[in-house]
Structures are given as C-alpha cells and as structure tokens.
Design brief:
heterodimer, A: about 350 residues, mainly alpha, B: about 400 residues, ABC transporter involved in vitamin B12 uptake, BtuC, about 5% strand, globular, branched-chain amino acid transmembrane transporter activity (chain B), transmembrane (chain B)
Chain lengths: ~350, ~400
C-alpha cells in the first residue's frame, strides 16, 4: 500500500510534465491544425532559459576579500557576482538561490517570442501542406534547435538546483497519519505538481472565461465562420501558439531541478508526449491532461519491483502498450472529438 | 530489357554502372593530395552507401507510393540484424543463411506490426509505428538481454556452435564473415600513379543485392500493384468506394519495405559482425525518413541518392576539424579568414547534424520532391521546354482532400 502511494506520487511529477507538453501540443493542433514535432525542443529551450538565467545571475568579477586569507596569508580572491554588488550580499545570494523560479518570469516572454517567430516564420507556410510535411519540417526544426543548444551549452547535462528551502524531502506518510519515514517525497516534485495544476488551470480558465478565449474556442470549432464574422482569427491563433510554447517552456524551466537539462531532453519527452496526445484524443485539451497524468502514474506503478517480477520489462513498454491498445479499441483516444484527424 | 521500359532500363543501367565503378568515382583525388579527405572510396563507407540505399529504397516503397509515414522502420533493420547474427553464431559464418533469415524474420515482424498499425492512418499510423519501434528498442535493451546482449550487443565468439561450419570443416576465413570462403573484409588495392582504388568483397556482395533490390523496386513501381499503392496515396476514400479493400495492398507494401529493412540489417551484420540495440532507436528511423525525403520520396532513384548524400556528408563533413578549416582559408587576410572559420565552424565536425537539420528543412520547404526535383528543375531551365510529367514526378502528386 505504501509502495503504491509512493509510486502514484512519483508518477505525478512525470505525469505533470507529460500533461503540460501534451496540453501545448493539443493547443497547437486544435487551433492551427499543425502537428508540431518541435514541441519537445520548446520544452528543452525552456529548460535552457533557466540555465541561461542562472549563468547570467552568477556572472561575477574577482575581488580581494581583506577579511579572509588563504593558507599563505595572502588576502583571498573571491568571485563576486554582480548581483551582490547591486543588491548587497544578502539579497544577491537569495536571488541566485532562487534562479530557477525566477527563470519563469524570464522564460515566459522569451518563449512567447520564440513561439510567435516560429509560427509566423515557418509554420504559417505549412497550413495547406499535408500532415506528413508538417511533421517533417518541424522534425527538422527540432534537430536544428537542439544542435544549436548543443553548440552553445555542450552535450553534458547541466545541474541546476532548486532553491535551498525546497531541497529537502517531505514526509508524506507522517502528514497523513501513517508511519513516518515510509513515504518520503522531495518538496520540489510536489511543487512541480502544484505548479502544473496551476498552469493547466490557468490555460483552461483563460480559454473558458475570457473573451479572447471564447473567440479562440469558436475558431477551433469553425475557423471559417469566425473569420467571416470579421474577426482576425489568424492573429489570435498565433498568440495561442506563443502561449503553447510558453507552457512547454515553463514546464521545462521547472523540470530542471528534477532532471539536469541536456540538449536531447526534448526529444525524449516528445515521443512520449505524442503518445499521450494520441491516447488522450487528438484535439481534446482535457483528454491530453488526463492521459498525461494517467500514463505518468501507470509508468511509475509499472516500475514497482512486484510488477516487474511478475512481467519483466513492463516498465519500459507500458506506455506504448497502452497507446497501442487504446488506438485499436478507441481510435479517437480517451476523449477525442468526432471528426478530428480521422483517416 | 528485363521487362522494363526503355527509360527505366537506362536508369537501371546507370545505377549498375555507378555501383560497379564506385571505387573509381568516389576516389577522384590522389591519395596524398590535400583533397584526399573528400575521397569516399573506402570499404566501410562504400558498404554503408549501398546498405542504406537498400534501406531507403524499401522505405520509399511504403512512404513514396502509399504516403504512409512510418517512424519505426529502424526496428525492422534491428530485428534483421539480430536474426543475422544469430545465424552466424548458430550455423555458419557464411553470409547467405544470415541474410536470408534476416529478410524472413524482419518480414514476419513487419507483418505483425503492419497488421496492427495499418488499422489507422495519418499521424496515428506514424505514432503507432514509433511506439512499436520504441518498444522493441526498450525490450532489446532490458528484458530481452539473453537474446540481444542488452547494452553490450552481440558479436560472434569462438565458443559459438556454428553447426554447419564444424560439419563441413573449418570456420571459413578464420571465423570471419565470408561468402563461401571469400572474406567480406578482403580488399584488392590497385594503384595507378598517385591514385589508389580499393575493391572490397563485402561492397560488391552488397552492391549486387542493392541492384537486385533496385530492379525489384522498379518492377513494383510499374506494376498494377504499384498503381494500387499510388491510388491509396492519392485518394484512399475513393478507392474504398469503388469496392477495393486497400488494406491488403498497404500491408503488402509495409511487409515488403520491412523485408528491405531486414535485408539492410542483415548486410550490416555481414559487413561488420556486431549488433547493438541503438540501431533500433527512433533517431535511426528518422534518418531513413531524411534519406528518402532528401533524395526525393516517390521517385525511383531519389532514396538511393539521399542515402548516398547523407552517408557521404556524415562521414566526410564530420571529419573536417578546425585546423583543416584554417588551412583552407589561410590564403585570405587574417581577419577575414578568422571570420570565415568562425562562421563555418558550427556547421562542420560535430556540428554536422545542424547542417543536416537545416538542409532537411530547406528541402521540405522549397523542394518537396527532394534532390531529384532539384535536378529536374535545373534540367528544365536548360531545356526550355515544358517538363514531362511522366516517370519520377509522381512525388508531387498531393493527396486530394
């Protein structure tokens, strides 16, 4: 029982990442009708926004610290980040410590900009081309983006720690009245889950309760009619692409403490996210979120030793097996709408 | 000739000539000259040209004709490789049984995968094939380690039974992969002046198989069966309305292209007797897609060109390093040469994938018909008469709504 709860918790953070990426993919597909193979690269770019910001914040110059001496008795040279000069040592070190959450503020405008440039510059020209062409060109774009990142940041994972406060673990069992020290769970993963919930809620609320969101939903249902009503739907869809990119980006930012970012992390997530989208139902936003969490948790449950003893290797293939089963029995996915991408 | 139209026969003869003369064509520069690094005529690379040519030809039979974009073809290549290496371990180091079995096993595996995946089309089909390939890859890495060797992969060992070899005495060419005693790694070197040409046994075995595979693909393209496949691409719905069930045709195309992939996998083992699971990773599937598109999907010669192009540049461009680059621009003034080196450096050596990705995007955006279409456009510029829409131009036929 404890093990099951622990695995469900473990599945939540992976599920959150799947859900966020799948949400963005579905937004793009639902609005623009484009299958975006570069979406994993956007997730990766978001993660590297965090790396960039933390590097910018720790840019430093050497100063001579009179109060300390090295073993020869000379005054010690220390690296002094510019942030400390500006804000003083106290606030400066706090800012550096909190670089990952701060990166969200940095990543959102950057990712929206990247998304809009991508849509206006490239994807716009592919609306009328077959889906195979869209897959291929975004696949090429993904290769290019990840190679550029590899060129500037190298091929090795770059550790990007969470703020000091969140580095510990949370004794989940004790909190809900079970034996202590059984279900222990890192704080940051809980935060990731909460963060994902907030972002998903925000996207849904935005689409549901704002006029902009209403127009976008109308455009998803019938683009032509909305256009005939004199609304510039293309512009709104471009903004939605930016938002989808930002969602993938912040998902990447917050994921950096869980998994040190490297240039191919996007591709690793992309393949699974596509499976998630297809399982959830192409074009269905709730489906994408639901499938993301379900598959994340299933993957965790399948890696319990009891399950692996029963069916060896199941943890490696469970997601793909579920996808194959779903596609064969419910071709539209869990919550797919009728008439979206059928044959 | 051979039941081909005249233009196809010319194309076949052209391919035959190129593959036979490849050691000369690929080694145009004298061995000690500065340009020698552009020589592609060494056995390892030449073998890759023809083997990946076979792989791409097979992929093109599925994607080029039916429009079904499979993202999991590397799985069949990998399965073929594993089957081949097991034949070598169990029966004989002769490559014939290995190659035959690799084709059969890959065919059976693609029958299973195709039977399930082809129930869906479009993006769903791509995802399903991707899922199957990733599943095979993960399984080969983890649970199936007793069969696949897991991370270390498989190589022939001296302790292998090799029943046929022991039965008929000897292990052939010292336990190396051979063709009735001809070692696949044997090469004949011919030096003419400053030039040196290599004639490799393995290359010619693979080349003969590629010519056969190419001939078969011409026959498939021109057959009624090929027409059916094109009908699937242009309008499957209308085809169904006329009372034709398209699935047997697409399944047959899928299995045939799976068998081509298996043949390529078997040949890879025949040339270099080792297998690892990374051969089945989805980037490997992506690579064959790149080859077919870059060369020209749906054309006969395109995939072969694409495979040759990618493998050549992969090997040659990725070998260029900064000092070679500086050597090239040494003649320019200092500032300019540094600038040129700085501009070009990200695209060469380890940055080869960046070049490939950019090139691929450019091809998809501007030249959907690939290199073949590019060549035709250039030819049309010089010819100044309306292009004939026959033969290889079918790639441009976009599916009707």
């Amino acid at each position: 029982m404890d093990a099951i709860i622990l695995q469900i918790l473990n599945g939540l953070d992976k599920g959150s990442a799947y859900a966020l990426i799948a949400l963005g993919l579905t937004l793009i597909f639902g609005t623009l009708g484009v299958v975006n193979f570069a979406h994993g690269a956007l997730f990766m770019l978001g993660a590297f926004c965090a790396v960039t910001l933390s590097r910018l914040l720790t840019l430093s110059h050497t100063v001579i610290d009179e109060t300390k001496t090295d073993f020869l008795g000379n005054p010690l040279k220390v690296d002094m980040p510019y942030v400390n000069d500006i804000f003083g040592p106290e606030i400066g070190s706090t800012i550096i410590d909190w670089s990952v959450p701060l990166s969200i503020l940095f990543a959102i405008p950057v990712m929206i900009l990247i998304g809009v440039i991508m849509e206006r510059g490239l994807i716009k020209h592919f609306y009328k081309r077959p889906h195979a062409d869209q897959i291929l060109v975004t696949f090429g774009l993904a290769i290019v983006l990840q190679e550029i990142v590899k060129y500037y940041f190298g091929a090795n994972p770059i550790p990007t720690p969470a703020p000091d406060v969140f580095r510990g673990s949370f004794d989940f069992g004790a909190a809900v009245g079970m034996d202590p020290n059984v279900i222990i769970y890192p704080y940051w993963r809980l935060i990731y889950f909460a963060f994902a919930t907030v972002i998903i809620g925000a996207v849904f609320a935005f689409l549901r309760f704002t006029t902009f969101g209403m127009v976008v939903r109308a455009g998803m249902a019938d683009r032509e009619t909305v256009g005939l009503l004199g609304i510039n739907i293309d512009k709104r869809f471009t903004i939605m692409f930016g938002i989808a990119a930002a969602v993938a980006g912040v998902a990447g930012v917050m994921y950096t403490p869980i998994n040190s970012p490297n240039y191919h992390m996007g591709m690793d997530f992309l393949v699974l996210s596509f499976v998630v989208v297809v399982v959830g139902g192409m074009g269905s936003l709730p489906g994408a979120v639901l499938a993301g969490f379900v598959l994340g948790i299933l993957e965790s449950l399948a890696s319990m030793s009891a399950v692996i003893d029963l069916i060896p290797g199941i943890n490696q293939v469970i997601i793909y097996m579920v996808a194959i089963l779903i596609l064969l029995t419910r071709p539209r996915g869990l919550m797919g709408r009728k008439g979206v991408m059928e044959e | 000739m051979l039941g081909l139209r005249k233009s196809d026969a010319t194309l076949l003869l052209f391919v035959v000539a190129i593959t036979i003369l490849a050691p000369f064509i690929l080694n145009p520069f004298p061995t000690n000259s500065a340009m020698a690094q552009f020589n592609g005529g060494y056995p390892d690379l030449m073998q890759r040209f023809v083997i990946f040519g076979i792989f791409a030809i097979g992929f093109n039979i599925l994607f080029g004709l039916t429009g079904y974009l499979s993202f999991g073809h590397a799985a069949f290549l990998g399965v073929g490789s594993y089957a081949a290496i097991w034949m070598m371990k169990l029966l004989t180091m002769n490559v014939i049984p290995a190659i035959i079995i690799s084709v059969i096993v890959a065919g059976l595996f693609s029958l299973v995968v195709g039977y399930i995946s082809l129930r869906r089309s479009g993006i769903y089909f791509s995802i399903l094939t991707l899922a199957f390939a990733q599943m095979s890859y993960s399984l080969a890495y983890s649970v199936l380690t007793p069969i696949t060797g897991g991370e270390t992969g498989l190589q022939p060992k001296n302790t292998d039974p090799r029943i046929l070899d022991t039965l008929f005495g000897g292990g052939g060419a010292g336990g190396r992969a051979n063709f009735f005693g001809l070692d696949m790694r044997d090469s004949y070197f011919w030096s003419v002046g400053d030039w040196s040409f290599v004639f490799n046994t393995g290359y010619y075995v693979a080349a003969i198989l590629m010519i056969a595979a190419f001939y078969l693909s011409i026959r498939i393209f021109r057959s009624p069966f090929g027409l059916m496949l094109r009908a699937v691409k242009s309008n499957q719905q209308r085809m169904n309305y006329t009372g034709l069930n398209s699935r047997p045709y697409t399944l047959a195309a899928f299995v045939i292209s799976g068998m081509y992939a298996g043949l390529a996998g078997g040949l890879l083992v025949a040339m270099d007797t080792q297998v690892g699971a990374e051969r089945m990773f989805w980037t490997a599937s992506g690579e064959v897609v790149l080859m077919a598109i870059l060369g020209g999907a749906g054309t006969l010669i395109g995939p072969v060109l694409g495979a040759g192009f990618i493998k050549y540049f992969e090997n040659i461009v990725s070998k260029i390093n900064e000092s070679i680059l500086q050597g090239w621009f040494a003649a320019l003034p200092d500032g300019l040469s540094d600038f040129m080196v700085a501009v070009i450096y990200p695209f060469i050596g380890k940055g080869w994938h960046l070049t490939l990705g950019l090139l691929f995007m450019l091809v998809v955006i501007f030249l959907p018909g690939g290199l073949v279409e590019g060549g035709q456009r250039i030819a049309a510029l010089f010819r100044r008469k309306p292009k004939d829409n026959d033969g290889g131009m079918s790639a441009q036929a976009t599916p009707a709504e």
